[in-house]
Amino acid sequence: MRKTLAITLLALGLFVLLLAGAFTVVQLTASETAWFEQEFSRLSLAENMGMTLGDLGAGVRTLVNYMNGKVETIDVLVTVNGQQVRMFDLDVEIVHMKEVQDLWQWFVAARNVGVLLAILLCLAGIVLDGKDALRNACMGYFWALGLFLVLVAFAGTWAAISFDSFWIAFHRIVFPNSENWLLPADSRMIQMLPSELFHDLVVRMGGRMLLLFLPVAGFCVLVLVLQAHRRRKMNPEADDPNRPKTPQEELAAIQGPDLVAVHKKTNMSVSERRKLNKIEEKAKQAIDAPDEGLAADLRDAALDTPVESRQKIEFAPVDETKPVEEDDDYDELL
What we know:
By secondary structure, the chain is mainly alpha-helical. The chain has helices at residues 2-30, 33-42, 45-49, 53-67, 91-128, 133-161, 163-174, 188-192, 195-234, 247-254, 259-266, 270-287, 292-303, 328-333; strands at residues 77-80, 83-86.
């Protein structure tokens, strides 16, 4: 029970850390102006909009700086077809970017609080079962990464099948009470950031997340393998099927289930069952002790039942050659 709770706390904490790391990847990738300029060039956006790559890059930097709170407005002057104009001149663009800024800042605050919460959860899991803290952390990471990959696989499959549908659903989820993200087709923000660019951006972010998280999973696998190898090395006879059985194992082989103990344990309260579990753990440790008499005493004390109650019940064999006698009393009842 203690180990399970420790792994659960570690899994929750590490899952929150994965989400925080994922948002950090999004934040860093969105700030790469050079990559955006490469996409602008690949999609021929500058030529189609009558602008230069430098002006498009300036527009992206302004948006990113605005989301991060580094500038107060998204006003930036650019040259379009030889004339100097405001890059984002529609009121709906300004209103939408204000909503994006508020959402972005909320994610930043949630990420920072989430990291603190994750640290507390992980510390609680380590304190709860410090003996196997490293192993528990690896198991917790596998659970956390598994859940994260399920979410990523779901979103990735949806985006691969229909990116437009995925992108519309995403906006309706993050902006449930607003339609300002439905910008007109002649909006420079829409022309500068088409769905093809966002598709490449999402793929880039997802790939970076996997490159960040999967090596940690590989490290956890290595830790678990080394620990298992160390246990086998310290006790090589434990996994040997041909090793001679101990007297306790031979006794267990000829005895049946302890029905009395099972019945008692089933009807115990939680606190009584917890105390009995501790006694049974001590009894299991004593079984391997050199003092076999002490081991047997502790075992019987833990179960608190006579040895006879654990003896196998054997029935006499049936003599099939002997004819079955009819029961006269049974015929009279009929």
